[in-house]
Design brief:
With about 160 residues, the protein is α+β, with helices and mostly antiparallel strands. It is built from 2 helices and 5 strands, in the order H-H-E-E-E-E-E.
């Protein structure tokens, strides 16, 4: 990159000097040919770069198909595991006392939205337990079980 900048500055200075010193017609023709050859080489290199980038997009497509296929296989496994896990996470010890909570959460259905009290993020209810709601907050968070006192009800107009 540094070489290109130095070369560009040199060419500009040389051109300015040639114009100022009154180069003859022969020298100017040589200079124009030189610049023309550089432009042709630059164009050929850009065409090569275009086809290389085009080839890389095909490689990315193959990689995406490969990894997405593996992810779909692991998702089907994780859904069966999740049903087993959700039975465990939705049951909490009987001695756990839930504090004050919004009693509208007792009528929540799967797919409804609730608000996490700690940060105000809106979550979607995936499973319902006696004292716990299992919610999905986003792609990175996954499913987490929250006691009802950690959530608040969200009206459709608020969401």
């Amino acid at each position: 990159m540094k070489r290109k900048g130095v070369m560009l500055i040199t060419m500009l200075l040389f051109t300015a000097n040639a114009i100022a010193s009154g180069f003859g017609e022969y020298e100017m023709r040589l200079w124009i040919k030189f610049v023309g050859l550089i432009m042709i080489a630059w164009g050929i290199l850009e065409i090569i770069l275009f086809f290389k980038i085009w080839g890389m997009t095909n490689d990315v497509r193959k990689l995406t198909e490969h990894f997405c296929r593996e992810m779909n296989k692991s998702e089907s496994k994780s859904k069966t595991q999740m049903s087993e896990i959700s039975e465990l996470t939705l049951t909490i010890p009987d001695d756990y006392e839930i504090g004050e909570y919004d009693h509208r959460l007792d009528n929540v259905k799967v797919g409804d939205k609730v608000r996490r009290n700690s940060d105000g993020k809106i979550l979607r209810v995936e499973s319902i337990g006696a004292k716990v709601l299992e919610c999905k907050g986003g792609m990175l968070e996954g499913l987490l079980a929250y006691p009802k006192d950690a959530l608040s009800f969200v009206d459709e107009l608020d969401a």
